[in-house]
Design a protein that fits this description.
Elements lengths: L4 E5 L8 H15 L3 E5 L27 H12 L2 H14 L3 E4 L9 H8 L4 E4 L13 E2 L2 E2 L10 H4 L7 H17 L8 E4 L2 H9 L7 E3 L19 E4 L8 H11 L3 E4 L5 H11 L3 E5 L3 H9 L4 E3 L9 H8 L4 E4 L14 E4 L4 H13 L2 H18 L2 H14 L6 H8 L2
Parallel strand pairs: 1-2, 1-3, 3-4, 4-7, 7-8, 9-10, 10-11, 12-13, 13-14
Antiparallel strand pairs: 5-6
Helix pairs in contact: 3-4, 8-9, 8-12, 11-13, 14-15
Amino acid sequence: MAKPRLLKINNYFYRRGGAEAVFLDHIAMFEQAGWDVVPFAMQHELNPPSPWSDYFVSEIEYGHETGTLNKIRQVAKIIYSFEAQRNLKRLIERINPTIAHAHNVYHHLSPAIFSTLKSAGIPTVMTVHDLKLACPSYKMLRDAKVCEACKGGHIHNVLVHRCIKGSTVLSAVVLAETALHRSLGLYRNNLDRLVVPSRFYIDKLTEWGWPREKMVYIPNFVDVHAFDTGWTEGDYFAFAGRLAPEKGIDTLIRAATLAKQKLVIAGTGPEEAALKELAQTLGADVVFAGYLSGKALHRLIGEAKALVLPSEWYENAPISVLEAYALETPVIGARIGGIPEMILEEETGLMAAPGDAQGLAAALAAMDALSPQARRDMGSKARAWISVEFSSSAYLRRTTELYSSLGTSLPVSTQQLTQSN
């Protein structure tokens, strides 16, 4: 039997964030399972070599200096990319994919590609990494607070409240983008299924008018064998991520001060200077470690008493939780979004209300009051849990079952892998 061919689609083709990690790991997993996988993405200097890069669309990178005419062209591509449609049509004619699986496409490839796939008769699914299908600004945030003002089709609020970086111009562009995409039904009419990594997002999208039967729950995954264990615990709690207002790091610094706990913060972002000033003002025992990755990040989290996620927005299904568990480190998380689904309270970690410094301080103190062995036991239970429920083999099985439901035949190697797990 000929190999089935999977067309994998994402804006970026390098390891840039959580969505890109899922996208690239998915490619590697399905290639190992016997699939022929072809990527479609945006050209970028950080992309690894690919025999398919000639089909990639030209780069749109918002931080680059560019002239007025080029900015106008970029805005047009953001809203509807004819280039992406042309390139994808050529690629489809070349490879004749069995199925297409998209991740993040807005602002770069644009959902115009979904009508191209539909016209070619290719079953298409998309993994939902954020709330763009409901909220024009994709995070359901206004002034760093949860906002659902656009619910019920009131998308003009994205412009009224200047939700995109406080800019009238950018907010107007996103309003135009959302209005056009919805009027053409680019997502709703052309996607066969939505892959949603958290049950919370399924419920939220249903509230905002998406048919529940079109959504399939497939949680994110991690390969626990890629993470070392047996770390020697240090005397600190850890945060790792972008230093942005919605992450709740100011609440965490206040909580750590109240609980008299040492905190190590790994990451950079727009709030870095303000957070350092807050820590200094409070006299908090906080170390800003800067950007860490790879073994250095694993060591930081592996030696922590717990990883803390004090988020104050609707997180989806943070891979950082799974990675902490793979390192046998318990997690203290905010009770918001998809985070509670990923914490077995008092078994793999603890929770606190979002934005509540005193409640988070109590959780930090409760975790600190446990013996090192009790925390190790929590971490061991967490690793064992995700080894079953959030494993790469479980993800492969669930995803191939979805593909099969859309009429895709599996290669023998995939059938053997899914049947044995």
